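Internal QA ticket QA-208
Title: Verify multi-chain structure generation after dependency bump
Assignee: T.L.

Test input:
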Amino acid sequence: MSKSTHLAHRIQNLQPSAIRELLKHSKMPGVISLAGGIPSQELFDKEGLAQATQMVVDKNFNDAFQYGLTEGNVELRQQLVGLCRERGITTNPDQLLITSGSQQALDLLIRALANPGDVFVVERPTYLATLQILSLTEARVQSVGGDEHGMIVDELEALLKTTRIKCVYLVPTFGNPSGTTLSAERREKLVKLAIEHDFIIIEDDPYGAISFTEERQKTLFQVAAEMGNHENVVYTSTFSKILAPGLRVGWVILPEWMKQKVAIVKQATDLHANSFSQSLVAAYLTLGRLNPQIALIRDVYKQKCLSLSRYLQEELGEHISFNQPQGGMFLWAQFRYEFDTTKWLQQTLEKGVVYVPGEFFFSDNADKKTLRFSYATATEEQLYEAVQRLKSAL
Amino acid sequence: MSKSTHLAHRIQNLQPSAIRELLKHSKMPGVISLAGGIPSQELFDKEGLAQATQMVVDKNFNDAFQYGLTEGNVELRQQLVGLCRERGITTNPDQLLITSGSQQALDLLIRALANPGDVFVVERPTYLATLQILSLTEARVQSVGGDEHGMIVDELEALLKTTRIKCVYLVPTFGNPSGTTLSAERREKLVKLAIEHDFIIIEDDPYGAISFTEERQKTLFQVAAEMGNHENVVYTSTFSKILAPGLRVGWVILPEWMKQKVAIVKQATDLHANSFSQSLVAAYLTLGRLNPQIALIRDVYKQKCLSLSRYLQEELGEHISFNQPQGGMFLWAQFRYEFDTTKWLQQTLEKGVVYVPGEFFFSDNADKKTLRFSYATATEEQLYEAVQRLKSAL
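Actual output:
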């Protein structure tokens, strides 16, 4: 019997997930993966995490194993207020909702916002899992181009002349996959447009803390707050890249008008985030180890990024170009001539190296000569070897 | 500015969640809660859970803190094959997907299945969070009545004469809220109808292991398998009621044709279930402590259930009637005369006791004289006192 009629039509046309396939490849013996946005587990703060785990078992046992509040562990939300303050964000525990990683924050927000036909705008290229979430809704997706200063906000402004926009989704700092950071000027303009045209900005900020320099852009949330606006920007971040992704702890700062709606979706989805993880992160934050841990991650990723950039420049510079990332986990590159990086993957795999082909990061007008490298997981030696293998696959 | 246009229309008309309000009440000092389906934390296997946690930190550190597979921890899925076998279910790790509690299994399944206009059938009464999930889709919900033998399958058969049904959702064993168990005869008939009319059965089984007798009904999954059918029944269960809900670990057994679709939704939703919790449960299962733990829960809940039943019968028997539960966590009762249990809640709250008014468990034709008591959390003394307070509120 054919089961095709049993499937939600919204997921009918999805292609098999590239990431899933790549993860399989990247676990093959001898293959060097520059694909996943996976933190280097050599950098896990084993001592601090073990200590926090012990604290939970000793002092917070019942909270950690029992049902909790939909909005999340109160102690963790209080701690997060301080962490947000370090990022220039003024908030309070009541505005926060703890999510199962920031991936879930995106899913909850989009489910709470997307009515059939609503226009969601993404960057070109953008985070592919957000495209997956959007494909499960009946929203319409439009895209706006980017350059080395992030989303081209003038293009968005032009689009607004003809189109009512519900929501703009972006990773404004050390973007995934682009690695770029939205300039101060564009941040201001984007927020002004959001206020003027009353659309929501989802500011996805998993990487902002992983800066390779001392330069900091204000979050869009802060830019809006400084304009007196507390309704149009929704900020989300996560402990996945700065502490440990397996804990699945992220958070979202919700405008007053969205709080109850998102809580209702959260409750329907999985009741609340993992109690044990939340207690564990709350305990960890009391140890004062997070900032040294982030400093370590910044140093190590910066070195790896510099190395990968150098090898690519030296060995493949005549074939590909890229902007030097100033933070985050990704180096976004493009061939200097027409090229299909999806097809090429088969060849590089044979040589023992994988990346993510660029086309999966586009909602439309995919640029097939682009590709994303992550330098987070591989060792220095592997980065060197990976580039050699890429070269040999040309 | 009005933000109402920003909200997904599907959540526009949801009432504030009754459960959320009740949880607030039930935490007021002195209030005895018979409301939530919350396991008694006095029954948590502290020693075993602490031991398993230590095993994870010592032996599985990287798996516990790193990203994992969308389908879930391989070791846990292997263990679950054995656990399912004890429930009469033959499966293999490839058919299993680990979810963030069985709540998420329901959300994933409904999202993967529900096209606009599709008919989902629930019991009357049914689990209220499933109604919440359905209200976030554009599926149509219809209901079929129940009696002391569970869903009245003849009513479903009658409905099938006029209506194409996509999916039937039910808690066939120690139902929430009804406490009833679907009879063997109806199980067989329901599965036959599913095969004949090609609809999906979602078999939600969080309580099946918590039986107060040695009697066992076959799962619908098993009934179908014995008819040679492996496509129409989706089985989901959880560790929330037998181990610890804060871990948010549930699982679903997927027919071949649904595996990839559900995995795609899972990935978009939160990438994968909490790695730490999955490692912890897998470690716990190696200790051989789960079955003694379940035996303890069965004994304690049985005693509490008998006590609550006796007090209700003795003190309120002229006002309310109920069927004696044979397992699970809930006693479903109804007034013997017209009565509004939602309004009454205000009065019982003043006397210091809360329950869940029955009307929230109905998709339509709510029976306002019904109410749900949970005996799982309160002590024996509290159960006695609670009934006295209920009486004084009449």
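Spot checks passed. Chain A has two domains: 4-45+292-392, 46-286.
Status: verified.
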